UniProtKB/TrEMBL annotation:
Family of the protein in this entry: Belongs to the glycosyl hydrolase 67 family.
Oligomer and partners: Homodimer.
Classification via InterPro entries: A-glucoronidase_C_sf (IPR037054), GH (IPR017853), Glyco_hydro_67_aGlcAse (IPR011395), Glyco_hydro_67_aGlcAse_N (IPR005154), Glyco_hydro_67_C (IPR011099), Glyco_hydro_67_cat (IPR011100), Hex-like_dom2 (IPR029018)
Pfam families given in the database record: Glyco_hydro_67C (PF07477), Glyco_hydro_67M (PF07488), Glyco_hydro_67N (PF03648)
Keywords: Carbohydrate metabolism, Glycosidase, Hydrolase, Polysaccharide degradation, Xylan degradation
Domain Alpha glucuronidase N-terminal: 8-119
Span of domain Glycosyl hydrolase family 67 C-terminal: 451-673
Enzyme Commission number(s) of this protein: 3.2.1.131
Ranges of residues in domain Glycosyl hydrolase family 67 catalytic: 125-450
Protein name: Xylan alpha-1,2-glucuronidase
Gene Ontology molecular function terms on file: hydrolase activity
Reaction it catalyzes: Hydrolysis of (1->2)-alpha-D-(4-O-methyl)glucuronosyl links in the main chain of hardwood xylans
Length: 676
């Protein structure tokens, strides 16, 4: 028996209200399918599975209508081909003689899949379908998930068990779980998955060799059925490590030839191979710097190899000095990506995309948007989010991240005047990029519920939905997800929705304050350790002393990072009075007595938010208790346990942070609450 937690948002619960069910039966009981679309195509299979489960009938599939009302499925023809593109679809109801014809037209096989999932989502929410007139296509081109999975089965920053892709150093022989993942991913519009960690170790380096390509190709076959292309993270030193060459210099002819042959071999096995994801010269990974070359030299060499086959190179911008001396106050990690990449604007081949993390540091609970968005007008760029909750509670805490991502996407870079939103960089429209889109580090593993915390499924769902259309609201996405996952009971929807929507703020409240970041235990990054990274080599400091805290990133007295933004933003961030409270300590070093725009002092803000955050975490539990009996006991109990742990850990965060700052500053809490 497949559990409810395994089914995630594809529950397909039987519709119990007879009137509603009958209306759907009338409309969907007869599927009219042209000969060109196989009854066994994944889209049609999915539709039949769902109809059986939700409506309790076996739909009749025929080439001509056999009922007065029916559901017609077709591939686009004529003008619609271009209108919809291969990923778009149209769903429209129209009156016919004695009934209603509901038509789904897919621009291509992917469009058909997405259209089916859209319709099933509406049915799951018990929405009427007899008046539908929907035309959709994705706003962004590349909609990827990055697995940070290793061949040994472990997952870097994975919080939901072991990898579903690998077992004991090999690609898993049982790919049914990968198929189910592909279904989930396709249901929210994902069209690319890179299947191995960006830190490419020994075994994975050989994935691109003829010895292992047949295995990789099996995974590609599974993904392809759902409109998902396979990508691989590659090791820049592969020519040495698996090619037997003495160098990986991108300007060396033998190296170039090796990559070209390698690309050809890959496409022999995987004709629609997406391309390479590359982490180079970053955190000790090999790269072009070793040979005195730059990132463009490295990326372009790979791009040339892939170009004949239509492949792309996704080159990550997470490049900084990870061996910094904490005594060195002139180096600022936040500056690094911009400083490395903006001078290269315009020198990358057109099948290279730079993948940029949403913030300049590393997926903290709060960061400003990376200034690289908006800084390169002649270079393809894509956004990298982190769905896996490395710094946001590791799927032991509830933290619905869609509001955070939305904030990043709605940020106005002012690169081309007002309205130059990050979402317009990511969808390619702002600078007319050839390639663009999104990637995110996945949060799944082989836990029965995929994501460790059942409510963390909402982040995977939400990521896909948001990047399909960044205009959707976080609330709307939450609502969709809850209905499909837990049903349509109003109380369930209200409670879970409230919990999700407040959870990011709650997490921020009891962890690192005012944008300063870190304060987590080194290495595993779970739990509070205020000075854990303060004297380390990672460039992640808060500089708290007895008088104040924060990083001066202004132009006059600090690292100058604030000037990496366009004028309006640079001015706001560079001024401690104008800087938004939530980012104050990212940009400024201020006394504890500095007054925020909220009217509170920094120190009082720290105390207040930490007391409040711990209370809010406690309250999450109480809200959940109200759902006992309204949702299945297995998922109810599991989430209750997670929330209990979260409430406890939030107290730990509260007391450690408050105590630390009380001891540093000597300033008592104005409300006299207990600080140790
Ligand atoms: C973070 C994370 C690493 C990861 C790196 C990356 O630093 O902790 O595990 O490898 O990001 O994005 O490459």
């Amino acid at each position: 028996m497949v559990s409810k937690s395994y089914k995630a948002w594809l529950q397909y619960e039987k519709i119990e209200t007879v009137g509603i069910r009958n209306a759907y039966i009338k409309q969907l009981g007869n599927i009219v399918l042209p000969a060109e679309i196989s009854e066994f195509a994944p889209a049609i299979r999915e539709l039949k599975v769902a109809i059986r489960a939700m409506l309790g009938i076996e739909p009749v599939v025929s080439e001509r209508p056999s009922n007065p009302s029916y559901f017609r499925i077709a591939m686009a023809s004529g003008e619609e081909v271009e209108q919809l593109g291969s990923e778009g679809y149209r769903i429209r109801a129209s009156r016919v003689d004695a009934g209603t014809c509901l038509t789904l037209v897919g621009g291509g096989t992917s469009g058909l899949i997405y259209g089916v999932f859209h319709l099933l989502r509406l049915i799951g929410a018990n929405e009427p379908v007899s008046e539908l007139d929907i035309c959709e296509k994705p706003v962004s081109q590349l909609r990827m998930l990055n697995q940070w999975d290793n061949a040994d089965g472990s997952i870097e920053r994975g919080y939901a068990g072991q990898s579903i892709f690998y077992r004991n150093g090999q690609i898993s022989e049982r790919l049914d779980r990968v198929r189910d993942y592909a279904r989930l991913a396709a249901s929210v519009g994902i069209n690319g998955i890179s299947i191995n960690n960006v830190n490419v170790h020994k075994t994975e380096t050989a994935f691109i060799t003829p010895g292992l390509l047949p295995e990789v190709a099996k995974v590609a076959d599974v993904l392809r059925a759902y409109g998902i292309r396979l990508y691989l993270s590659v090791n820049f030193a592969a020519p040495i490590q698996v090619g037997g060459l003495a160098t990986a210099d991108p300007l060396d002819a033998a190296v170039q030839a090796w990559w070209q042959e390698t690309a050809k071999a890959i496409y022999d096995y995987i004709p629609d191979f997406g391309g390479f994801v590359v982490k180079a010269d970053s955190e000790h990974r090999p790269g072009p710097f070793t040979y005195g070359r730059d990132h463009a030299d490295g990326a372009n060499m790979l791009a040339d190899a892939l170009a004949p086959f239509g492949g792309i190179v996704i080159w990550r911008c997470f490049v900084y000095n990870c061996m910094q001396d904490w005594r060195d106050r002139t180096t600022d990690r936040a500056r690094a990506a911009y400083d490395h990449f903006t001078p290269l604007d315009g020198s990358f081949k057109d099948n290279v995309i730079l993948q940029i993390k949403n913030g300049p540091m590393d997926f903290q609970v709060r960061e400003p948007v990376s200034p690289l968005f908006g800084a390169m007008t002649k270079t393809n760029q894509m956004m990298e989010f982190q769905v896996t909750q490395e710094y946001t509670g590791q799927q032991r805490h509830l933290c619905y991240l869609v509001p955070q991502w939305k904030e990043a996407l709605d940020f106005d870079t002012h690169a081309q005047g007002e309205g130059s939103y990050v979402k317009r960089v990511a969808d390619g429209s702002l600078f007319g990029a050839k390639h663009s889109g999104f990637a995110a580090v996945s949060n799944i593993g082989d836990d029965d519920n995929w994501t460790g915390h059942t409510l963390a499924q909402a982040n995977l769902y939400g990521y896909g939905r948001l990047i399909w259309n960044p205009e959707l609201s976080a609330q709307q996405i939450a609502d969709e997800w809850i209905r499909q996952t837990f049903g349509n009971d109003d109380q369930v929807i209200n409670v879970i929705s409230r919990m999700l929507m407040g959870s990011w703020q709650t997490y921020e409240n009891y962890t690192a304050p005012l944008g300063v970041g870190w304060m987590v235990a080194p290495n595993h990054h779970y739990g509070p350790d205020v000075d854990g990274y303060e004297y380390s080599r990672w460039g992640t400091y808060h500089f708290a002393d007895r008088d104040g805290i924060g990083v001066d990133r202004t132009t006059n007295t600090g690292t100058g990072y604030s000037a990496q933004y366009h004028a309006i933003n640079a001015e706001v961030y560079g001024d401690a009075v104008k800087c938004p409270d939530e980012l104050l300590l990212f940009f400024h070093h201020v006394p504890y007595t500095h007054r925020l725009q909220s009217g509170k002092t920094v120190i009082q803000h720290i105390y207040d938010t930490h007391f409040e955050g711990a209370e809010q975490a406690d309250d999450l539990q109480k809200q959940w208790f109200a759902l006992e009996g309204l949702i299945d006991s297995a998922r109810y109990g599991h989430v209750r346990e997670r929330l209990r742990e979260q409430a406890q850990h939030a107290k730990q965060w509260r007391d450690i942070i408050n105590t630390y700052f009380y001891r540093k500053s000597g300033i008592p809490d104005a409300q006299g609450r207990t600080i140790y």
